[in-house]
Write a structure and sequence with these properties.
8-stranded mixed β-sheet; 36% helix; 361 residues; 6-stranded mixed β-sheet; alpha/beta
Length: 361
């Protein structure tokens, strides 16, 4: 049995993959939402799992963004603090996948330039501090893993987890995991974005009020994973861009002759933001179930994204299931305009008083 447990993460992501077969069980946690998510929703889920004798075979941080990493930092910090207590830790963690900023985004020049801007007055300093805070959250997770003696990126012998040719799937218990992103090209792009932003700040720091690093920059380094078990496939996309995902799938030979891929579950990229899905995305990435983790903040999921999905499915004459973590304004607008049932899709929403909703394959 393969199950995706979609944990309430508000504007962030928090997913738990669970597989049982041949007398063994595999558990993979992907992202942890904000700190408040850990306390309110993730911790109770982990406590229940531990009470059943479960462990986490792998924890994955898709990328360093507050609504993905802070909950994991809170989780690992609790595990560290429990080392000094006579009681057993909340739950055992066997491995961590986390690409450090210094290994992916930074070419060796970005952090020193941020440190220099931090010393300047005004907007440049505030912008640099914000960026350094994001970087620091990832470093904190890596440090906590070291304290806990949790192996980091052991599947790549400590090197960054990247997509590469030839395809090199990783066995995680009963799961087969293929890394489809980030690619080297994605990392080159993110370094260019960081450099251009720093160029602007350094050239005219006092005139750049309100200028911040484009939030798409860290997202380009998102770990994107194709997970397979029992003839089922899930595509987990972090906050990556859909066009980059399609390029990577093509380069890895994972698209069919028509340039498409079919999976059982697709976690729609970046909380359903329209900026992350090209026009042909849902024509080429085809799923039975689509998952959106969002609560309306920043307009996510965009109504246009949901309508693009529906239009693609209608044109192909296929039904689908839409799973959402929150009945927020964009979702309600979509449902009013295109009620489920008679429009070829079913809707499942996480109840407001529950910690999670399950997708069972």
């Amino acid at each position: 049995m393969l199950k995706l447990r979609v944990i309430q993460a508000e504007e962030g992501d928090c997913l738990l993959l669970m597989h049982e077969g041949d007398g063994s069980a595999t558990r993979v946690l992907i992202d942890g939402g904000l700190t408040s998510i850990y306390r309110a929703h993730l911790r109770p889920v982990l406590a229940e799992l531990a009470a059943e004798g479960g462990t986490l075979d792998l924890v994955v941080l898709s990328h360093v963004d507050s609504d993905h990493v802070r909950g994991l930092n809170a989780f690992f910090a609790e595990l560290r603090d429990q080392q000094a207590e006579p009681t057993e830790p909340l739950i055992a963690v066997r491995n961590l996948w986390h690409n450090a900023f210094s290994e992916t985004d930074d070419d060796g020049t970005i952090t020193p330039r941020l440190r220099a801007l931090e010393q300047m007055a005004g907007v440049a300093s505030a912008s640099a501090l914000d960026a350094l805070s994001t970087v620091g959250e990832g470093s904190s997770l890596r440090g906590l893993a070291t304290d806990l003696r949790i192996p980091v990126n052991a599947a790549r012998k400590g090197r960054p987890i990247l997509a590469g040719k030839p395809v090199d799937p990783v066995a995680v218990g009963g799961l087969t995991v293929t890394v489809v992103g980030p690619t080297k090209a994605n990392l080159d792009a993110i370094r260019a974005e960081w450099s251009a932003w720093l160029d602007d700040l350094e050239a005219a720091p006092s005139s750049l009020a309100g200028v911040a690093l484009d939030k798409t920059a860290p997202n380009l380094s998102s770990l994107q994973l194709l997970v397979e078990a029992d003839d089922k496939r899930l595509l987990l996309t972090g906050d990556g861009r859909g066009d980059h995902l399609l390029e990577a799938l093509d380069a890895l030979g994972l698209l069919d002759g028509d340039g498409k891929i079919e999976v059982d579950v697709l976690k729609i990229p970046h909380h359903g933001s329209i900026r992350n899905v090209p026009e042909d995305f849902f024509d080429r990435v085809i799923a039975s179930t689509y998952v959106v983790s969002a609560n309306g903040r920043y307009g996510n999921p965009d109504l246009a994204t949901l309508e693009m999905l529906l239009s693609s499915a209608r044109a192909a004459g296929r039904a689908f299931e839409l799973v959402v973590t929150n009945r927020c304004a964009p979702v309600d607008a979509f449902v009013r305009a295109h009620p489920p049932g008679r429009n070829g899709y079913t809707l499942k929403a996480l109840p407001a008083d529950e910690h999670f909703i399950d997708v069972v394959l």
